Amino acid sequence: MSHITIYTQDDCPPCTFVKNHLQANHVDFTEKNIKNNQYRIEMMDYDAFATPFILLNDEPMYQVDMDKINQAFDIQ
Questions:
Q1: What is the reported pTM?
Q2: Could you tell me which residues come within 8 angstroms of residue 27 by beta carbon, excluding any fewer than 6 positions away?
Q3: Which end of the chain has fewer CB atoms at under 10 Å, N or C?
Q4: Judging by beta carbons within 10 Å of its beta carbon (0-12, 13-18, 19+), is residue 24 exposed, middle or buried?
Q5: What CATH code is carried by the domain that includes residue 13?
Q6: What is the C-alpha to C-alpha distance for residues 30 and 5, in angstroms, rounded to an integer?
């Protein structure tokens, strides 16, 4: 089964778009808002410096790839 973690920040329209898309399709996800310093450091450990930063099945996604996300969760 696929799993997804999204590193986000406040006032981030792309973050909101991805979260809303997953919620609308009943996909559970873990959100890590980088205002929490621990999550910011975790994200930077992946050499990621922009949100949303996504881990899809523990694989880093540096650019949002909705096709890949939809395929992983069988979203039509």
A1: 0.94
A2: 4, 73, 75
A3: C
A4: exposed
A5: 3.40.30.10
A6: 5
pLDDT tens digits along 24-42? 999 999 999 999 999 999 9
The strand pairing partners of 31, in sequence order, are 6
Tokens of 44: 């930077």
| Structural domain boundaries, residue 47 | 4-73
Biggest alpha carbon distance in the chain? 36
Positions in the chain whose pLDDT score sits under 50: none
Residue with tokens 């039509």: 76
- Angle 14-15-19 (CA atoms, 0-180°, nearest 5)? 115
The two structure tokens encoding residue 36: 């929490």
